[in-house]
Write a structure and sequence with these properties.
With 98 residues, the protein is mainly α. It is built from 2 helices and no strands.
Length: 98
């Protein structure tokens, strides 16, 4: 009876087969872990979106308050506002002309 010779190539093929078989056994566990990671990433993305929306609302509110305060100051002291605007205009004009 002829028995096949054990060559390094044959041993490598057998080792690869065993490794692949072992990999297939762990595939359901990996799929479960991937599913958990997807859920965690979705939760993180949702938290980031909520935080960003909250920050945008806060900045929008602050900007609205600043505009409202500026409008009240202009209405209360229109001459001061005109003088400040003229001074800023002169300053910008001087910087541009250089």
């Amino acid at each position: 009876m002829n028995t096949p010779q054990r060559t390094p190539e044959l041993e490598t093929l057998k080792a690869n087969r065993d490794t692949q078989s072992s990999d297939f056994e762990h595939q359901p566990d990996l799929e479960h872990q991937i599913g958990q990671l997807k859920e965690e990433l979705a939760a993180v993305a949702n938290t980031l979106q909520e935080t960003a929306a909250s920050q945008i609302d806060e900045v929008h509110g602050r900007a609205g308050n600043a505009v409202h305060d500026l409008e009240r100051r202009v209405q209360r002291d229109p001459l001061v506002s005109v003088a400040v605007a003229a001074g800023v205009g002169l300053l910008i004009g001087a910087l541009i002309s250089r």
